[in-house]
Amino acid sequence: MALYLKRAGHDVTIFERFEEPKPVGSGLILQPTGLTVLADLGLLDDITALGARIDRLHGADASTGRTVLDVRYDARRGNRFGLAVHRAALFGVLFRATRREGIAIETGVEIETLEAGERATLICANGRRAGPFDLVVDASGSRSKLRQATGEAGLPRPLVYGAFWASLGWRGEGFDEHALLQRYDRASVMIGVLPIGRPEPGADRMAAFFWSLKPADAEAVRGQGLDAWKARVVRLWPRAEAFVSQIDSFDQLSLARYGHHTMRLPVGRKLAIIGDAAHSTSPQLGQGANMALLDAAALGYALARTKDVEAALTVYARARRRHVRVFQALSLAFTPFYQSDSVALPFIRDRLVATIAKIPPAPQFLASLVAGTAIDPFGAVGLKEARWDFRQNPGHDTSQ
Prior knowledge:
21 strands; single chain; 32% helix; globular; 7-stranded mixed β-sheet; 3-stranded antiparallel β-sheet
């Protein structure tokens, strides 16, 4: 967001609550949507040099080996692909770009609220007043404090299931280096391995490993001991031993909690809200970071094409409304089939859905769902989808 604003000629300051800017989390997949935004910013080559090209998502029942999910990107739409990256890689590419642009970053700043009049003033936790500003952009995540300035102050509704995540060394034997692979035990357990390339140039290749569970059960799992948990993982997916053998402590596993919330209107007076602060949900469709990148592009173009800030906020909200609402609804609908206590839903998933998914046009629809393009996200924002047919094969680190 700061890059779009700076390049449009605005004075920009980033406020960061950490004492030092740094990435948080494991891996994610940048879809054609998010990659198009990075291409628009001139950063596509930087990120593809670090990431791993993903051509398909494949899931199987842990007990029978039956394929219950097989989605491939639609090659008829310009050789689309996903790019799996470590969050540190995405953070690094964007952070280095902001440094090159000379964008001011103030760290160790906890924002409590905002006062909006003719201009906006930020109120910090230590009583400091920062500003005034013509516009404040809230990108502070699902627990945003600034959201209350719009009258929508509620926190996301907690989802029952979360996940243990770890970033581990890539062990390729028996694993497709261009696929997200998953194993399911009904809907109560989902194990995944995602190749995520390198966190920074010159680093070793890595994988994101995850195990779904209820956050409420995490302490019980820890209490049973690491060996018991690892044995259960390997029993369900023997090849996963190549990854769990790298885990020596529960401290290597981050517990992710998920919630669902969609703002009715992601704007207020002198305030725009983007990313998880505006819409958070389960990562089941893998759209979170991509939706945030689209938000940034939409707001950037709205401000560039509209002289009045308040009018630009209206344009931004309108540009993202349909895409956000449709994908939020789809994510909420699909999640129980993969993360829930239901017995019936995974039964339907494994037999009916898996069969239907092979019959046209279902494969094309699923591909567009994963790509984030089932509803056109580009036209309303002001973008054109990047061309993929001339790109080098992502996953090749040119520094090696």
